[in-house]
Amino acid sequence: MPKTVSRRVKLPSKRAEIRGDCPQTWFVFDCAFHKNICKKYVTNTMALFATIHPLFVVSGFAVGFLVGMTGVGGGSLMTPLLILLFHVHPVAAVGTDLIYASVTKTGGSLVHGFNKTIDWRIVRRLALGSLPASLLTLLLLWMLKIDQSAYSALVTKVLGVALIATATALLLRRRLLASYSKRVGVLSDQQTRNYTVVTGVVLGILVTVSSVGAGALGVTALLLLYPELPAVRIAGSDIAHAVPLTLVAGLGHVMTGGVDTGVLVSLLCGSLPGIMLASLFAPRLPDRALRIVLATTLVVVAIRLLSA
C-alpha cells in the first residue's frame, strides 16, 4: 500500500489580519456578509441612542410621575408641552402622546393591578363605549380627508377647550360631587352602567382628537358614578382603561404617519420609571396641592393654545 502522507494545508498569509476584522470568516460566515450585519446592527443601535434627548426624558419622567400620582396629566400636559415648548406639529404631537400614554399607563396598570386597585367591571364598561367611539372617530376623520392645516387648527382648539374642562374638573371636584349627590342621589346599577358606557363614548371621541380627557375628566365622571369606591381604586381603573383606548387611537395615528418615533423613545425612557415610582409612593404626597398646581398650569396652557 502506498504510504499516506499527511500534509498541513497552508492558510493565507493574511489570515490573522482578516480574522482580526472578521472573527467568523473561517467558520461559517462570509466576511463581507458578517461585516454588513455588524455594521447595520451598530448603525441601528447608535441611531436609536442618538434619538434620545435628555430634555424629552426629563419631561417624560415629570409627566409620568404626575400621572402615577393623580391619574391626571398625561395628554393634558404632554401634548401642549410638545406643541408649545418643543414645536412638534399638533397632529404628530397627538399621535405621539397617545402611543406614549398607552405604554406609560401599561406600567402604571401593572403596579395598580399588583396592588389590587383596579375595578375591572368599570374598565369593561368604559371600554365598551370608548373603543368603538375611537374607531368611528378615526374612520370619520379619514373619510372626510380634512386638510392638514385645518386639522391642526381643529386639534389646537379642541385641546384648549379640553384643558379648560379638565382644569375645572380638578378645581371644582368636591363641589361637583356634593351637588351631584344632593340632586341626583343614588343611581341604580343599570343607570350606573349606562352612564359609564356613555362616559366612555365621550372620552373615546375626545381622546382620539386631542389625546386629552382620559385622566381628569374620566376620574371626575367615575367619582360621580361610583362614590362608594376609594379614590385610589378609581384612579387605578381610569389608568387601566386608558391603555386600550390610547393604543387604539394611537395606532390610528400611526397608520396616517402622525407619530414622531424619536420623540416617543425619549419620552418613554423617562415616563416609565416616573409612573412606576409615583404609583408606589402616591399616598405620601398632598393631592390637593398637586391638583391646584396642575389646574393652574392647564388654564395658562389652554389660554396660550386658544390665542394661537
Could you write a compact summary of the structure shown?
By secondary structure, this protein is mostly helical. It is built from 13 helices and no strands. It has helices at residues 15-21, 31-50, 54-70, 74-85, 90-114, 120-144, 148-171, 173-183, 189-210, 216-225, 231-255, 261-281, 287-306.
Structure in words:
This protein is an all-alpha fold and 308 residues long. The chain folds into two domains: 15-47; 54-306, no CATH class. The chain is 78% helix and 0% strand. The chain contains 13 helices and no strands. The protein has helices spanning 15-21, 31-50, 54-70, 74-85, 90-114, 120-144, 148-171, 173-183, 189-210, 216-225, 231-255, 261-281, 287-306. The longest helix is centred in the first third of the chain and has 25 residues, at 90-114. The radius of gyration is 26 Å and the shape is globular.
